[in-house]
């Protein structure tokens, strides 16, 4: 019942529709393939009818479904009709795009208000809502760059980037293999592992703690742009020098977080282990490391992004003719911005997958932590 | 120091003393100046005794147990446990400790929490399982083995921590307000269980409580303490028989001892004014 309440998004969308109708046509007069009045009417109908219908409907799910169809149908028609007319869009075009976007917003709001009963539906909604969100970033990007004729070099439309990705799969695959599967993964594992081991050493040997932490601090402050060329001189042009940069970048966050995590266990718990006359390693493995796990995972997550950035930037300073950073730096020189964006998209995807995997492992291992199980301490 | 410990050994063998404190004092150095938590404590606890410590908040009951457990170092006087220093006694795993809070590890199931000390002392898996089962039964937690501590109520958590100390099975049991968080009925039940366990096993138990009836019901001796500085003001021997049904708490004898404890506590309080 609550859902039948008029929403400001839908109201505003109707107002935008009305203004658009008053300021027609959608495309400039010199457009090569002007939009037929049938298409224009269809777009307006796709926005206005679901908008009005959503006022009348009682079920949140039903009005969300109608809004979903209307918003995406209208967006699809708008984008489809811009081809051949790039840069010719007039104000009504953008008003209708905004109206469609408002309907999608309302649709997402309705969907997130639904309290589904079954677990599958809940998972599906959890995925659907961010998917609609992401789709609209792409829709607006596509419609605005093409409708307003944004110069290709400034910002290519997503469709052009997707086409470039599709055409350059072998190159992209080789770059990913070079940068991610060699430099990033190797550097990440070695950097995190050594940070962890040194943290344990520093915990065991007090003089190391006092000596190492300040030096670690200094190393972490080293500018990557300064370190990368030196690593190339030391370890050569191949991926090893990039892995070295990644090791330097990931080592310190792991060290600091683990050292902090090792002090996270409570006094009473440590006293308890003391009453059992538990030795250093028993206390470490049975109490202090489990208690430190949230800190360690924090470092693993920070490092997953740092490693990717480090490896890509390091490739700007001398590489063999393969690698994501190498590709970005050479293609930008040739004004092939779509290739640069393709690499960025691949890097974003790889980074999200990397982060997601670490976060999933974290949820599985620190299930007991209040922040994960969402309960009281 | 070494001399006194050796002398203590000689005497404790004769008198069968488990805990022997002489002129014991402890001063905490805090940022607001020294805090005298214990002063001039002279106390001998013999094997098989059940000694309760009672007194107002802040009188040093926890501190005294922690000194016995080698979690706190005395600044004056001497203390010996089974004729050893507290440090040696701790290394010899001479005692089990139940803290004021449950202190269960949230990443371990209840049964693995109870089994934690057994893992540390390196018992066989079979022996661990047997002891876990026995002590979980004793505190009525059967059926909750696979649960995590945060899935249990506060009282159940405290029972799990008692099971953990019992599974450890040391001859000296130090319990710091173990039943403070429990409801009356569960408390009565656990009091009975604890008494039975104590009679059967001939353990020595040091038990901190705020409840006069609980102290009188359980103990062979009641140590009344008073604060600022924490010290022993009265030691009351119980004349109750070893066999104690719950309704002994209505007997005149019981009430007489309770009245003495209450007087002792009052005296300690009025001392402040
Ligand atoms: N680690 C510490 N540092 C400084 N002062 C302390 C410390 N531990 C205890 N004290 C002080 O010593 C005194 C005795 O504390 P203790 O915890 O032994 O009291 P208690 O009798 O157990 O009280 P309660 O019944 O409230 O548990 C208190 O005044 C307390 O403030
Ligand atoms: Mg206390």
From TrEMBL, chain B:
Molecular function GO labels: ATP binding
Keywords, comma-separated and alphabetical: ATP-binding, Nucleotide-binding, Transport
Where in the sequence is the signal peptide annotated?
none
InterPro entries documented for this protein: AAA+_ATPase, ABC_transporter-like_ATP-bd, ABC_transporter-like_CS, ABC_transporter_ATP-bind, P-loop_NTPase
The ABC transporter domain covers 21-252
- Tell me the SMART domains matching this sequence: AAA (SM00382)
PROSITE patterns the record matches: ABC_TRANSPORTER_1 (PS00211), ABC_TRANSPORTER_2 (PS50893)
Is the keyword Transmembrane assigned to this protein? no
Q: Which protein family is named in the record?
A: Belongs to the ABC transporter superfamily.
Task: Give the protein's recorded name.
Answer: ABC transporter ATP-binding protein
Q: Which organism is it from?
A: Aminobacter carboxidus
């Amino acid at each position: 019942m609550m859902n039948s309440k008029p929403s400001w998004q839908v109201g505003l969308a109707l107002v935008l529709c009305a203004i658009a109708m008053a300021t027609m046509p959608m495309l400039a007069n010199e457009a090569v393939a002007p939009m037929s009045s049938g298409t224009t009417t269809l777009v307006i109908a796709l926005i206005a009818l679901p908008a009005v219908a959503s006022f009348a409907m009682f079920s949140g799910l039903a009005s969300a479904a109608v809004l979903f169809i209307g918003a995406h149908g209208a967006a699809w028609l708008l984008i489809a009709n811009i081809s051949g007319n790039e840069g010719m869009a007039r104000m009504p075009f953008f008003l209708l795009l905004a109206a469609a976007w408002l309907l999608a917003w309302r649709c997402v709001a309705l969907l997130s208000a639904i309290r589904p009963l079954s677990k599958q539906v809940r998972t599906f909604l959890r995925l659907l809502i961010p998917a609609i969100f992401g789709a609209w970033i792409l829709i607006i990007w596509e419609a605005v760059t093409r409708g307003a004729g944004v110069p290709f070099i400034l910002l290519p439309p997503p469709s052009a980037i997707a086409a470039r990705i599709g055409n350059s799969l072998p190159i992209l695959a080789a770059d990913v293999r070079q940068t991610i599967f060699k430099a990033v993964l190797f550097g990440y594992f070695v950097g995190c592992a050594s940070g962890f081991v040194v943290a344990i050493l520093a915990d065991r040997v007090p003089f190391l703690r006092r000596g190492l932490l300040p030096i670690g601090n200094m190393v972490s402050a080293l500018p990557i742009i300064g370190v990368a060329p030196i690593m190339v001189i030391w370890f050569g042009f191949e991926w090893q020098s990039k892995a070295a940069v990644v090791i330097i970048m990931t080592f310190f966050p792991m060290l600091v977080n683990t050292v902090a995590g090792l002090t996270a266990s409570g006094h009473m718990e440590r006293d308890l282990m003391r009453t059992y006359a538990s030795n250093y390693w028993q206390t470490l493995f049975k109490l202090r490391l489990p208690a430190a796990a949230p800190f360690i995972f924090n470092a693993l997550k920070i490092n997953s992004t740092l490693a990717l950035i480090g490896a890509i930037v390091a490739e700007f300073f001398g590489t063999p003719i393969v690698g994501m950073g190498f590709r970005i730096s050479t293609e930008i020189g040739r004004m092939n911005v779509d290739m640069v964006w393709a690499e960025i998209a691949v890097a974003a995807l790889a980074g999200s997958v990397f982060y997601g995997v670490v976060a999933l492992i974290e949820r599985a291992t620190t299930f007991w932590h209040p922040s994960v199980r969402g309960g009281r301490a | 120091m070494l001399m006194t410990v050796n002398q203590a050994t000689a005497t404790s063998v004769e008198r069968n003393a488990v805990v022997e404190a002489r002129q014991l004092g402890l001063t905490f150095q805090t940022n607001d100046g020294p805090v005298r938590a214990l002063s001039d404590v002279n106390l001998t606890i013999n094997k098989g005794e059940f000694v309760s410590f009672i007194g107002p908040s802040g009188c040093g009951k926890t501190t005294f147990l922690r000194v016995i457990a080698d979690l706190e170092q005395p600044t004056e006087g001497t203390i010996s446990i089974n004729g050893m220093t507290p440090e040696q006694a701790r290394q010899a795993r001479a005692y089990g400790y139940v803290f004021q809070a449950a202190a269960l590890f949230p990443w371990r199931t209840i049964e693995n929490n109870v089994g934690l000390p057994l893992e540390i002392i390196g018992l066989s898996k079979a022996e661990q399982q047997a002891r876990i089962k026995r002590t979980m039964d004793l505190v009525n937690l059967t059926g909750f083995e696979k649960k995590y501590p945060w899935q249990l109520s506060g009282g159940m958590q405290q029972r799990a921590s008692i099971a953990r100390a019992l599974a450890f099975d040391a001859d000296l049991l130090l319990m710091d307000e173990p039943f403070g968080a429990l409801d009356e009925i569960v408390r009565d039940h656990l009091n009975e269980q604890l008494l039975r366990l104590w009679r059967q096993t001939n353990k020595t138990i040091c038990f901190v409580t705020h409840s006069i009836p609980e102290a009188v019901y359980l103990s062979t001796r009641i140590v009344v303490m008073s604060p600022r500085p924490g010290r022993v003001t009265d030691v009351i021997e119980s004349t109750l028989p070893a066999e104690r049904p719950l309704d002994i708490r209505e007997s005149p004898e019981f009430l007489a001892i309770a009245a003495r404890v209450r007087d002792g506590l009052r005296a300690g309080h009025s001392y402040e004014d």
